[in-house]
Specification:
The complex is a heterodimer of chains A (387) and B (355). Chain A has 387 residues and is of the alpha/beta class. Chain A has helices spanning 24-39, 65-68, 88-101, 121-124, 138-154, 160-172, 187-192, 220-224, 254-267, 272-275, 288-295, 304-310, 328-331, 335-350, and strands at residues 5-12, 48-52, 79-82, 107-115, 195-197, 200-201, 210-219, 231-240, 278-280, 364-371, 376-383. Helices cover 34% and strands 18% of the residues of chain A. In chain A, the strands form two sheets. Chain A has a nine-stranded mixed β-sheet with strand order 3-2-4-7-1-8-11-10-9. A two-stranded antiparallel sheet of chain A has the order 5-6. The radius of gyration of chain A is 19 Å and the shape is globular. Chain B is of the alpha/beta class and 355 residues long. Chain B has a domain at 4-117 and 206-229: 3-Layer(aba) Sandwich (Peroxisomal Thiolase, Chain A, domain 1). Helix content of chain B is 33%, strand content 21%. In chain B, strands 3-2-4-7-1-8-12-11-9-10 form a ten-stranded mixed β-sheet, sandwiched between helices. In chain B, strands 5-6 form a two-stranded antiparallel sheet. In chain B, a hairpin with a 5-residue loop joins strand 11 and strand 12. The longest helix of chain B is centred in the N-terminal third of the chain and has 16 residues, at 23-38. Classes of the chains: A alpha/beta (387), B alpha/beta (355). Chains A and B meet through helix 2, strand 3, helix 3, strand 8 and helix 9 of A and helix 2, helix 3, strand 3, helix 4 and strand 8 of B.
């Protein structure tokens, strides 16, 4: 069995289109210092640093961990760099946790970031490759046909995506760090925004953000002595499958279902909607909420959209299972950090430290990230209690 | 802590240009051979898979995604990736086994460096505000480091030439080597300098290829009935990125990582050091305190062929090969990343019990 470990410090930057006031080093350091302050610790208390970000071409720096070691107080310590596509923020948190859960280290710092304003993600994702189909579509163009297939199969009404877009922005308006602050957003406004990749409208898409997120993860012994309540790591899981293969289920990927089953088993969860109090789930395009509600077992197949339409996932409507009370990826998308933000926001909830977007009395939370062609998954369950 | 064993290692030939083969085509033959070596069918038969690669070598975001196509990842597998040499993918896998979430793991690394200008490409891993805009290439940085060593009287050009000549001769016994030959130090010294004080032969070649390893718990190695070597210690440390902030003629992080990995607990029969430039082998062997009783880079090291993103894993694999062949009982493997030996990993391997 893995050693018990917990999140004892969380730090984030605010998320915005361009952080012209800081370098990349300044950006990651800001998140890291916030996490150390939150944990009431200093650089000397950290044994290793685990860094994650999405493709290097998003900033144009090869293996930026090499350059960021000074900014992250890592000189003389181990530094590991994780890259698993869009799921990377989540995977990085899991790799960081394994440093402690394996008994190898007592306390580590993990940081993930994206400074999208340094380059152009759409360009970086669209380099043609020899002998491969050139999509030149970016992420939205890739996912739009899969969403259309979901709508066809489930018979979901056309405004489900609009409802999610509004709900997550109203959540985001309660989170001062969120990039998009749209407290007045309405269904009409989203419906009237221009169509990017049918059926995904402009306001049903995530923004392009600069930002970083950091966590301090500690052993049971150190977490017991932490100055603030720890978020105990109750389950960790990763799954991958190829982008394409004959018969691949792209709407409801097997890798996501397997990953959820694995993490629920570790955390003793049999009915995720009932057992979990809150979930922070990677939803970069609005329709992925109902799709992931089904993939993650919160609703039977074809019925995820009903939870959304009933308000079950809305903190503001008093739903029984709020999804993305922080505003989610739809409110802030610093790509490489987005997965870790989900994991960190889940931890904030069970530490009862989520400010105006706190789900009252949250004790058990899911953090979720996915990437690639919805083929890489990383998840954790964190709790206010050890078991 | 749980004892972890290496039970298989395979690599492709190091070739200067793999032609039209893409990365998946470089990986698949290596994986086929390692599955055969360990006696398994595909990645479904291990509990965890981790790889190392670099998007900028491929010239596209998500280089590793297609790598998954080589694995047979249907049904889905537990899989992760580091944007580092695969030696660090091994490190991640070791943690996964230690925490009890896997009993076995497949690790692989791959790189096709030939299409680009590698030294210039790698200049873009430097500080993006102060160093990268100057396009300082890796060879120039290494030349500066060698010049400092020569000026301080720590080495001579003949010492460097001896390293190269030994690499070329050792590589005669390595079927995967790209550069080999019955060469003397005088032959090397007769070459003109390339980026002074480095001669072309002081620099590793640019190679395409892949390597792979299977590790597992010692119990599992015994159950599989395969010869194995035990990873008795593994540690890595990074130093300041600013070349002016550290002594480039020494490798403090290598020495400390070796201490942490327990290298000093016994004699070292064999050492495989990731030294892309001849003078760096001298820095590393001195940092590790290796003497005449250690066989250094019997494979020829990376001067004989440098599979970017896989060469570090290959150093560990070469030590494993010598231990299971009975040529050595204990060995040390070293991996580096970053300019002028900025980040270093050391693994100590011991002979396992007879299966």
């Amino acid at each position: 069995m893995a050693n018990l470990a917990a999140v004892v410090g969380i730090g984030q930057t605010s998320y915005t289109t361009k952080r012209n006031d800081v370098s990349i080093a300044g950006l990651v350091r800001e998140a890291a210092v916030n996490a150390l302050n939150d944990a009431d610790l200093t650089w000397d208390d950290i044994d290793a640093v685990i860094l994650g970000k999405a493709p290097d071409m998003f900033e144009g720096i090869i293996m930026p961990e090499i350059y960021l070691t000074d900014a992250l107080g890592c000189n003389g310590k181990p530094m590991l760099r994780v890259h698993t596509a869009g799921s990377v923020g989540g995977s990085t948190a899991l790799v960081a946790a394994s440093h402690v859960q394996s008994g190898t280290f007592d306390r580590v710092l993990t940081v993930s970031f994206e400074k999208q304003s340094e380059s152009n993600a759409m360009w970086a994702l669209s380099n043609p490759q020899p002998f491969s189909t050139h999509l030149n579509a970016g992420a939205g163009g890739y996912f739009a046909p899969i969403i259309r297939e979901y709508i066809r199969r489930s018979g979901a009404p056309a405004d489900v995506g609009i409802k999610v877009a509004v709900k997550d922005r109203l959540h985001g308006a309660r989170n001062p760090l969120a990039h998009l602050q749209l407290p007045e957003i309405s269904m009409e406004e989203v419906a009237d925004s221009f169509m990017l990749w049918d059926p995904i409208r402009y306001l049903e898409s995530c923004p392009s953000s600069d930002g970083a997120c950091a966590m301090v993860i500690a052993s049971e012994e150190l977490a017991d002595k932490a100055s603030k309540p720890p978020a105990w790591i109750r389950g960790v899981a990763m799954r991958s499958e190829p982008t394409m293969y004959a018969g691949r289920e792209e709407v409801n990927p097997q890798a996501g279902r397997d990953c959820a089953a694995d993490v629920y088993k570790q955390a003793g969860i049999s009915d995720p909607r009932k057992d979990l109090d809150v979930a922070e789930v990677y939803v970069p395009f609005s329709w992925y909420e109902p799709m992931w509600l089904e993939n993650l077992g919160f609703a039977p197949e074809g019925e995820g959209w009903k939870l959304t339409m009933e308000g079950a996932t809305s903190l503001i409507d008093g739903g029984d299972i709020p999804w993305n009370p922080s505003g989610g990826v739809l409110s802030s998308n610093a790509i490489g950090a987005s997965g870790m933000i989900r994991f960190a926001e889940a931890a904030r909830q069970v530490r009862n430290d989520a400010g105006d977007h706190q789900v009252p009395g949250a004790k058990l939370a899911l953090g979720h990230a996915y990437g690639g062609g919805a083929q890489f998954f990383a998840m954790w369950v964190v709790g206010a209690e050890k078991a | 802590m749980k004892e972890i064993a290496i039970v298989g290692y395979q690599q492709s030939d190091a070739v200067s240009d793999a032609g039209a083969q893409n990365e998946v085509e470089l990986i698949i033959p290596v994986l086929s051979r390692i599955f055969e070596q360990v006696g398994i069918t595909n990645a479904q038969d291990v509990d965890f898979v981790c790889s190392g690669s670099c998007d900028y070598l491929q010239g596209a975001a998500f280089a590793f995604v297609l790598g998954v196509d080589a694995l047979g990842a249907v049904p889905p597998i537990k899989e992760s990736h580091v944007e580092m040499d695969a030696a660090w993918a091994l490190y991640e896998s070791v943690l996964k086994i230690r925490m009890g979430h896997a009993d076995s793991a497949l690790v692989y690394g791959f790189g096709k460096s030939s299409p680009g200008e590698l030294p210039i490409v790698l200049s873009q891993q430097l500080d993006p505000y102060y160093l990268a805009p100057q396009w300082v290439d890796t060879i120039s940085l290494a030349a500066m480091q060698a010049r400092m060593m020569l000026d301080r009287g720590l080495i001579t050009e003949r010492d460097m030439a001896e390293v190269v000549a030994r690499s070329r001769r050792n590589a005669l016994d390595n079927p995967h080597a790209q550069l080999k030959g019955d060469v003397t130090a005088d032959d090397i010294l007769a070459e003109e300098t390339y980026l002074s004080p480095l001669r072309r032969s002081d620099c590793c070649p640019i190679s395409d290829g892949a390597s792979a390893m299977v590790i597992c718990t010692v119990e599992k190695a015994k159950a599989w009935g395969k010869p194995y070597a035990v990873i008795s210690g593994i540690d890595h440390i990074i130093e300041s990125h600013n070349p002016g902030m550290r002594d480039l003629t020494d490798s403090v992080s290598t020495r400390k990582a070796a201490e942490n990995a327990g290298m000093g607990k016994g004699k070292v029969d064999v050492a495989e050091l990731y030294a892309p430039f001849s003078h760096q082998e001298l820095i590393l062997s001195r940092a590790l305190g290796l003497g005449d009783d250690t066989n250094i880079n019997p494979s020829g090291g990376v001067l004989a062929g440098n599979l970017m993103m896989a060469s570090g894993l290959s150093r560990i694999g070469e030590v494993f090969n010598r231990i299971v062949a009975g040529d050595a009982e204990r060995g040390v493997a070293h991996t580096t990343s970053g300019p002028c030996l900025q980040h270093n990993l050391v693994a100590v391997l011991d002979k396992g019990e007879v299966a």
